[in-house]
Each structure stands twice: as C-alpha cells, then as structure tokens.
Amino acid sequence: LMERKTHVKINRKEVMLAKLRKSCSCTPQKLKNFFMDFFPVLRWLPKYRIKEYIWGDVMSGLVIGIILVPQAIAYSLLAGLKPIYSLYTSFFANIIYFLMGTSRHVSVGIFSLISLMVGQVVDRELLLAGFDLNDDAPPASGDGSLQNDNLSNTTAFNLTTLGINAECGKECYAIGIATALTFMAGVYQVLMGIFRLGFVSMYLSESVLDGFATGASLTILTAQVKYLIGIKIPRSQGHGMLVITWINIFRNISQANLCDVITSAICIVVLVTAKELGDRYKHKLKFPLPTELVVIVVATLVSHYGKLNELYASSVSGAIPTGFIPPKVPELNLMLRVALDALPLAIVSFVFTVSLSEMFAKKYAYTIRANQEMFAVGFCNIIPSFFHSFATSAALAKTLVKTSTGCQTQISGVISAMVVLLVLLFLAPLFYSLQKCVLACIIIVSLRGALRKFRDVPARYHVNKVDTLVWVVTMSASALVSTEIGLLVGIVFSMLCIIVRTQRPRTALLGQIQDTCFYEDDLEYENLSIVPKVKIFRFEAPLYYANRNYFLKSLYRLTNLDPNLEAARRKKYEKKEKQHLKKGNHRTANGLGFGETTLQLVPKQIDFQALVVDCSSISFLDTTGVNTLKEILKDYKNLNISVLLACCNPSVIDSLKRGGYFGKDFGCMQEMLFYSIHNAVLFAKGQK
C-alpha cells in the first residue's frame, strides 16, 4: 500500500510579497549584481585569457567583417534601403551584443529573413504614401556626402499629417519607417524580457521555423530575379507577391539586360563552385574563402573600367556616403503605423537568436541566459534605431564561420565592427559602380542552405508525417501569402495538429505477455495471452472535453459492448416478460416463442466481468474527463461489470478525488485504483 505525502500548503500571497520586497530592496551588492547581469561583459572580460583567446578572436572577427561588408550591401536590396544603412546596422549590432549578450559565439547583425520582413513593411508604407517603388532608375552621381537624398525618386512627401513638420523624400521616409519598426520590435523584446515571456518561443517548433525560413527564402529568391536579368518591373506588394512577381517577370522577360544576365551567370557559377569546394575541403582550410568579397571587388573594377552602366544600362549601387548621420529619434506616429508589424519581427528575431545561442552553448559546454538574450537583442534594435539602422538577429551561416575560424568570445564581434567601421569611414564610395545583379547573386547563393530543405522532405516524411505536413503548410503560406501570415498559419496549424492528435489518439486492448506481469497491445505483438473474463483498455492521451466521445466510442468498439444499449435491451426484455406473464401467453404477436424473443432482445452473452482502464498515458483529466469515468463506472456497474483504474499519476488521482469518483470518504478507493495493471487483473480474478 502506497500512501501520499502530506504537502504543506504554501501561502502564495506571502510568497509574492516576499519576492516583491526582495526585488524592490536596493543594496550596493544588489546594484552591482544587477549591472553585472545586465552587462555580462563586466563578468567575463576581466577573466579574458589574452594569450589563449586573442588569435582566434581576431582571426574570426576579421573573416566575419570581410563577409559582413558584401552581405550588408547586398541585403539592403531586401530591406528596400540604401547600403549605408545596412552597414550602420552591422556595426552597432556587434558592439551592443558584445556588451549585453551571453553567447560567446553567435554572430548578431543583418539577416536575410529579417531584412525581407523589414523590406515588406517599408514597401507597403512607401506605396501608401504615394511613392514609386521602382528603384531601377539611374543612380545619382553624388559626391559621397551624407546630404544626397534619393534623386531617383524626387517625389516629396509632406509628413505634417503624421506629426512631422518637414518634407521627406523617398529614402528619408523609407529609413523613417524602418527605424520606427525596429524601435517597436526592440521595445516588444525588452517587455517580453521584463515579463519573462520567453516561453512564447516554445510555440515555434522546428518544423514551423524551417518551413517559415524556406518559404521566406523562396520570396527572397523571387524578389532578386529582376536584378539577375536586369528587367524593370514594379515591386509587388500584399498577399500573393510571389505569384504576381513571377507573372511580371515572364511578361517582361524580353526586356532582359544581356550584360546583367552574363554577369549573373558568371557570379553564380563562381560563388557556387567556391562554396562547394569550401564545404568539401573545409577541414583543410584554416578559414573560409572570402569569395563574396573577391567577387564584389572584381565585379566593381570590371563595371567601373568597362563602363557597364553607361554603355549597357546595367543597374549599379550608386553613391554610398561615408561617415555617420547625426542620430534621430524614431517618429512616434510612424511607430503607431507599424506597431502590429513589429510583433512577428520581434518574435522571429528573438527565436532565431536564442535557438542559435542555446545550440552553440550546448556544443561548447557553457550556459546562456535566455532572458538576458531577449534584452540583448532588444537593445540591439532599440539603440541602433536612433542611428538609422534596422532590425537584426543572429545568423546561422556567419555563426558557423565564427566557430570554424577559432572564435572564443565576443571580442571577435568588436573586430568585425572595426572592419565595418573602416568601410563606413573610408571605403564605401569605392562600391559606386557595383552592379545590383552581383548583389542579387550573393543573396541567392546564401539561400542554398534553406532551399536544400526541399531535399530533406522524403527523410522528414519518413520520420514524422505530421511534422512534414506542418512544414509544407508553413512553407506554402509563407511563400504564397506573406511571411507574417505564413508564420501565424504555421503556429496555428501546428497547434491544431496537436489538438487533433489528442482528439483521436491510439487506443488498444491489452493482452498479457506470457509468464510475466506485463501487458501490451494485442494488435501489435504476437503470442499475447488473453486474460479470461477481463478486458484491459488503454487510452493514449489526456481525457478531456474534446476527446470524450472518441474515448467512449473506442471503448465500446474494442470491448464489443455498449452498456447503454445493453441496459436498454434488458429493460425492454424485462418489460416484455412482465407483459406476457400478466396475460399468461407464452407466444408473442409475431408467432415466436418467449425463448426466441429473448434471443432477439439479448443477442449475446457478455464475455467479461471486469474492465481495467490503463491510465498510464492519461496525463490529466478535466471535469468532463472525470464525469466520463464516473459515467462508465455507473453504466458498467448496472451490468455487474466492475471498472478498475490502473497506473494513474498523482494529478489524475487528485482530479478523481475532487470529482467524487471514489465516493465521499474514499472508502472504496483501494478496490477501484491500482498502481499496476497486473495488480488490477489479480484483484479482478479474485472477484470471480
């Protein structure tokens, strides 16, 4: 006999007040710990082992910095912004994460998925403001100063109606929208950190994230095709952007720029070949080949000296100014316009950062603090938004490069930021003649990992069909509808799959493994012994309101007995019997004898006297679940069949007690509840 421990009741009010008093108290030591926790760099930097770590950090920082520059310029196409803003983003994100991050290895900065989500909001707001989304007009041959606005679109938009007493061109308005969106995303992330809402990331399963990334990659690929072949088509907005863009591409394919097509073909061949060789011989290389940088440098030189823009009308990046624009507070009214769009951006940015941080922390045997990561990525968005930057996140590809080149701490992030700073201060104008088709090639080749997920579909389907369906639905919605809707559809659909699986779970009748006290599904295993006069029923899910009917139907089907129908037959038989005994007539109206009528009313004999319900897979019961068990207890008792429960966990037992299943004083509990199926079977046999 097992007895439950008596738990002391906790006064939750007192506990909450004690925690509140503790958190509100302020001592010098507590203040010091707060700052040390909020800026983890204060803990690990004094312990930095210079001789052991510095070479790996410097090497990885330089490599990531070299990769960051071409990627930042390329991803500006996705965000619908000028390259200078992407460089600002890469610079500030690395510095802030160095101060506040708890992961030693992740690379935080510009990320293709986040850039796409920012770009979609920017394009929508530009369109609503009356700007032309066509960005393929000839670039301004500016002097490299920061005062040059986007002369390719001279429409000025008076923002007085939005509370801004100034006229703003397309570029100014675009970066205003991006910074407002980024600020709001950062605020959401900080609030989630304050209220410890990091658990929301649990609802983004691996299948949802992979499907979302793959669907968004198809959208990114589609958006870059027009740059690859040099055609001028309007940038599609709203739902179904992927389909509309492809229709426009095929309608205008005859206008393809031959120079851009040839350049794109050469760049893709070079980039893919270099990536494949790098993957094959990565164990022999001390650091990855800076292929993107080499391609950009060579392509810029060829474009400049070959005058590809002047002679062949090839679209180029244009003037990229040097230095820093004075900081500016994001506009409040623009924040209100994009507040809803910032929520999925905040969640996706946080989830990717934390999942990568946890993955590499586990690999290299250290711990991170998910809540502090939320603060870190939040301030990586809030602070840079004042410096004309847009949203950031951790990126897997760059993080893998960091670890492969010997990264030990976030000192490498500072080195990468210095490389970007060098470009910002001195080298940015050199990329004036860089063709946009080259940037598009870099973006498309960087999608190789996400697009390769299509090859994994058969293996994924073999492992789990439901997860594969979640992946397909999320990917399709992200690509064909929109990225935000796709993410929402993926989350909702994955939850529905869980609900459906609990609504119609596996059920089975169990048989005894010969000469043992163990029982298993008689449809799945051979040579099981059927226990005479006892039925053992297993239900592999929680029992709650949504699956109550399925529980009863499965029980009646497998035991081949519906107690309600059987009770109705018996009542009908008893009624007929009384009527015939009154009349003294032993023949029925249809000419059958009384015994024959009995056979029709009660067609079969019940072949069991006890029902054992295996509750080992029932994790919880709601009120409906308790009432269902009480119902079958009563119904089977009317047929002289005892119902015994086996392997109930403590929470199920407590629910049954509170629901009055065992009676008022629990006197019959020992005869109704057993800690193993075998004990219940032995008890049932002893009742015969």
UniProtKB/TrEMBL annotation:
Superkingdom as given in the UniProt entry: Eukaryota
Pfam family for this entry, one: STAS
Membrane topology: Multi-pass membrane protein
Location(s), subcellular: Apical cell membrane
Matches recorded under SUPFAM superfamilies: SpoIIaa-like
PROSITE patterns named in the record: SLC26A, STAS
Annotated transmembrane regions: 53-75, 95-118, 172-191, 211-229, 334-354, 375-397, 409-427, 471-500
Catalytic activity: nitrate(in) + chloride(out) = nitrate(out) + chloride(in); oxalate(in) + sulfate(out) = oxalate(out) + sulfate(in); bromide(in) + chloride(out) = bromide(out) + chloride(in); sulfate(out) + 2 chloride(in) = sulfate(in) + 2 chloride(out)
Record domain STAS: where: 524-684
Keywords: Cell membrane, Glycoprotein, Membrane, Phosphoprotein, Transmembrane, Transmembrane helix, Transport
GO molecular function: secondary active sulfate transmembrane transporter activity
Alphabetized InterPro entries for the sequence: S04_transporter_CS, SLC26A/SulP_dom, SLC26A/SulP_fam, STAS_dom, STAS_dom_sf
GO CC, one annotated term: apical plasma membrane
Family: Belongs to the SLC26A/SulP transporter (TC 2.A.53) family.
Name of the molecule in the record: Sulfate transporter
